[in-house]
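As promised in the previous annual report, we have extended the structural survey to additional targets. Below is the entry for Kv channel-interacting protein 2-like protein.
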Amino acid sequence: DCPNGYVDVDVLRDVLMRFFPYGNAFPYAYHVFRTLDPKKKGEISFKEFLIWLSEMSRGTIETKLKWIFQLYDINGDGFITKKELSIIINSIYTLLGKKSNAVDDKYIEEKTRKFFHRFDINSDGYISHNEFIAICRKVSTSEENFLISFNVTASVQSNQFSMTNFIISFKIGKKSM
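The corresponding structure token record, generated without further manual editing, is:
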């Protein structure tokens, strides 16, 4: 519930927990919120939040890829490091909780290694925005699952997570700000 018209990381976490009740939503909510609040005010307007939701569900592929890159580029330096990628992958599996079949550090390391092998075109240990976009544009339909596995927002297009239900959760949520 957003009676004052603002969303913060705790509200986002609480809503995500309704869709992913078997895990811990805070790490992923924190990173999503970080991309939505670049000025670090600690809250965004509900209108800003709805605009982001609209962009993620109806926006161009370029808009979605730009956001996904920002999610993984934790320090905002324009590059994704193995550590940053590992942190986000871990937050996704933490969000999924019991549904993720007990993922361990070795599994996350392997996912990170595979991702870097595919996306770090010049093998410099960093994935630049240009490398990320170039590979994403080349991904065939059969390879989409590879990318989708690295981004929970891809479930927006699946039956388990609908934007309508997500928005409704804010309206009927138990938490007041």
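DSSP finds nine helices and four strands in the chain. Residues 42 and 51 are 18 Å apart (CA to CA). These points will be discussed at the next consortium meeting with the crystallography subgroup.
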